[in-house]
């Protein structure tokens, strides 16, 4: 299924949080994704950090139609293609790699590459991208860095990830150039291990409430 970036970005404009789903068990990945969707977060990133991540992505894509599932931590063009073949509706990378961007573009799949410096952002801009992940946000200069970059790269939207939490989400979202924030704080390992998926739904609801307040809604 082809999903346009503008459609994903529209959902993120309303619910500006992208939770990470990290699992080596497809059934658990499905349960996590359903819990997130129940809390109102419907754009989820299944990260490629376990041996069974591809199966997890496929399971979420097949069994949780209420979410738009993308693949995260995509490091190579081959991984990007495998993710798309398994149903990824968007790709997120920690860095900017021309091969990954090309596979995404060739398949008409939205790509959110990670950038940290002006040079990386300029390269992304010249690859025709207007939305990037800013990673690792807290170490890369946080909000002042995003403000400095966005004063030069007008029209670029940022997805800060890395060190974002309920405690600083509102501050990031108050920056106009920030489209959405990503993070793992919504899917704590302890809750997953205990099978406490309600806790994940509550964290999703909390994030949405913070976002609404931050955006003055
Ligand atoms: C990512 O892959 O986007 C980051 O590892 C997320 O960082 P966090 O765990 O600090 O949210």
How would the blueprint of this fold be written?
Blueprint: H1 5-14, E1 17-21, H2 26-38, E2 43-47, H3 53-63, E3 68-72, H4 77-85, E4 91-92, H5 98-106, E5 111-112, E6 114-115, H6 118-126, E7 131-134, H7 142-152, E8 157-160, H8 169-173, E9 181-183, H9 189-194, H10 197-214
Parallel strand pairs: 1-2, 1-9, 2-3, 4-5, 6-7, 7-8
What topology, given as strand order, has the largest sheet? 3-2-1-9
Mean pLDDT: 97
CATH topology: TIM Barrel
Number of extended strands: 9
The helix-strand sequence is: HEHEHEHEHEEHEHEHEHH
- Helicity, in percent? 40-55%
What is the CA-based Rg, rounded? 16 Å
Q: Poorly predicted ranges (pLDDT <50, ≥5 residues)? A: none
**Total of helices:** 10
**What is the CATH superfamily label?**
Aldolase class I
Bound molecules: 3-phosphoglyceric acid
Structural class: alpha/beta
- Shape annotation: globular
Level-2 CATH architecture: Alpha-Beta Barrel
Strand content is 5-15%
Main sheet overview: 4 strands, parallel
Number of domains: 1
N-to-C span: 32 Å
What is the level 1 CATH name?
Answer: Alpha Beta
Structure description:
With 217 residues, the chain is of the alpha/beta class. The protein has a single domain, classed as Aldolase class I (TIM Barrel), CATH 3.20.20. 47% of the residues lie in helices and 15% in strands. It has ten helices and nine strands. The strands form three sheets. Strands 3-2-1-9 form a four-stranded parallel β-sheet. Helix 2 links the parallel strand 1 and strand 2. Helix 2 crosses helix 3 and helix 4 packs parallel to helix 5. The protein is globular, with a radius of gyration of 16 Å. It binds 3-phosphoglyceric acid. 3-phosphoglyceric acid binds next to strand 9.
């Amino acid at each position: 299924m082809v999903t346009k970036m503008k459609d994903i970005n529209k959902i993120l404009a309303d619910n500006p949080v992208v939770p990470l789903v990290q699992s080596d068990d497809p059934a658990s990945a499905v349960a996590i994704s359903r819990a997130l969707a129940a809390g109102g977060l419907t754009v989820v990133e299944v990260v490629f950090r376990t041996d069974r991540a591809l199966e997890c992505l496929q399971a979420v894509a097949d069994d949780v139609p209420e979410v738009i599932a993308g693949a995260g931590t995509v490091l190579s063009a081959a991984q990007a293609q495998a993710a798309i073949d398994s149903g990824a509706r968007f790709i997120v990378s920690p860095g900017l790699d021309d091969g990954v961007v090309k596979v995404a573009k060739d398949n008409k799949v939205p790509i959110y590459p990670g950038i940290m410096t002006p040079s990386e952002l300029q390269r992304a801009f010249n690859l025709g991208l207007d939305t990037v992940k800013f990673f690792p946000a807290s170490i890369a200069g946080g909000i002042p860095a995003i403000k400095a970059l966005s004063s030069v790269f007008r029209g670029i939207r940022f997805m800060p990830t890395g060190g974002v939490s309920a405690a600083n989400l509102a501050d990031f979202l108050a920056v106009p150039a920030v489209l959405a924030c990503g993070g793992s704080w919504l899917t704590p390992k302890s809750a997953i291990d205990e099978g406490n998926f309600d806790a994940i739904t509550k964290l999703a609801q909390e994030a949405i409430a913070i976002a609404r307040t931050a955006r003055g809604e």
